[in-house]
């Protein structure tokens, strides 16, 4: 093992909500070979969870059992491999990918600028925004299975639906190949600027939040359902439904993860009572309740 292994590692500093417990073990591999060897060596029944930027995640207050894998700089490279194709490390941010695509004159990846996460998260959750999804641009991804085996999966093997993939449990996405189309860098930058301005205007970007909380039901917008149910500004403990965008929950400073999750469940209950619609969580909730 050449990476960094930490016992009882605090996860709150690593996630956007700034709440939650510790990981039994936090592993930051030196490279793909290091990750493969580590996963092959640990007990086969030990849970493994990958962590990116922690932007769409509630870590429960009792912490996360097993191993949390966090990909560092060695997994954050982006390179152009064909005229309109990029190979991106699993730890690369959406901002880096979209900016690299712009510089290479590759259009179609601008939407990644608006998603505060990493390539691994995009692939795992079919991340999307502004009418585009990861499945629209993904060619294939390289993963390391829970067993330590490395495998390449084409997009068709991932069973993509809205904010969901059939990635094998415990697998870690170490790289992905994205394909766009030829474009003018100035036009690409203009589209990225438009997306950034729209996010700035509508979303509470400077708050401790987890991004979009609930999936949009067919034919509906989650934020409108939450608003109609009278939940704008609703609080439980230190957690609040954003006044600016009602599909965002906010840690106002001292919220526990239990506060945040309870607020989300209260919103779901009120939306069900008002509209008859069951909102589904988009934010992942992981770990043990305290």
Walk me through what this model shows.
The protein is of the alpha+beta class and 290 residues long. The chain has 3 domains: 4-73, 2-Layer Sandwich (Uridine Diphospho-n-acetylenolpyruvylglucosamine Reductase, domain 2); 75-202, 2-Layer Sandwich (Uridine Diphospho-n-acetylenolpyruvylglucosamine Reductase, domain 3), CATH 3.30.465.10; 208-283, Uridine Diphospho-n-acetylenolpyruvylglucosamine Reductase, domain 1, CATH 3.90.78.10. It contains 6 helices and 19 strands. The protein has helices at residues 32-41, 94-103, 119-125, 185-202, 222-228, 257-275, and strands at residues 4-10, 22-28, 48-51, 57-59, 64-70, 78-82, 85-89, 106-107, 128-129, 132-133, 138-144, 150-154, 172-179, 181-182, 208-209, 235-236, 239-241, 249-251, 284-286. The protein has a 5-stranded antiparallel beta sheet. A 4-stranded mixed beta sheet has the order 1-2-5-3, with no helix packed on it. A hairpin with a 2-residue loop joins β6 and β7 (85-89). α2 runs antiparallel to α4 (185-202).
Topology of helices and strands:
Blueprint: E1 4-10, E2 22-28, H1 32-41, E3 48-51, E4 57-59, E5 64-70, E6 78-82, E7 85-89, H2 94-103, E8 106-107, H3 119-125, E9 128-129, E10 132-133, E11 138-144, E12 150-154, E13 172-179, E14 181-182, H4 185-202, E15 208-209, H5 222-228, E16 235-236, E17 239-241, E18 249-251, H6 257-275, E19 284-286
Parallel strand pairs: 2-5, 3-5, 4-19
Antiparallel strand pairs: 1-2, 6-7, 7-13, 8-14, 9-10, 11-12, 11-13, 15-18, 16-17, 17-18
Helix pairs in contact: 2-4
